[in-house]
From TrEMBL:
Protein name: Peptidase M43 pregnancy-associated plasma-A domain-containing protein
Family: Belongs to the peptidase M43B family.
Domain of life (superkingdom): Eukaryota
GO molecular function, a single term: metallopeptidase activity
């Protein structure tokens, strides 16, 4: 089984997000979704899920919306509640640096 990740060279040009783009795209290649799942609407639905139990359910955020610590889907459903994962590599916030334990397990399971 072969794993490939393709990126345009200009994505890694040294801009603000360039060091974070490769880990984000590798996360996709290893089975991870965005922290908000497949939805891009501005409201909470059952689709606001990356299907990893320890990632708090959240709405899509980027730019200045990432500066606020918030729980954009408070009390929604039975998934883990808590502040949005703004530092998560699979989000669109500029302070990306973390994977959850569950995300790491998902990536390892994908490679088996």
């Amino acid at each position: 089984r072969r794993l490939s990740v393709w990126m345009r060279a200009d994505i890694l040009d040294g801009g603000r997000d360039s060091p974070k783009t490769l880990p984000h795209e590798l996360g996709h290649a290893l089975g991870l979704k965005h922290t908000w799942g497949h939805t891009s609407e501005g409201h909470c639905t059952s689709g606001n899920s990356d299907h990893v139990a320890d990632t708090p359910q959240n709405m899509r955020a980027s730019g200045s919306a990432c500066d606020d610590v918030a729980d954009t889907c408070p009390g929604f459903g039975v998934r883990m509640r808590g502040d949005d994962a703004h530092a998560n590599v699979m989000g669109y916030c500029r302070h990306k640096r973390d994977f959850t334990y569950g995300q790491m397990v998902r990536m390892m399971e994908t490679t088996v």
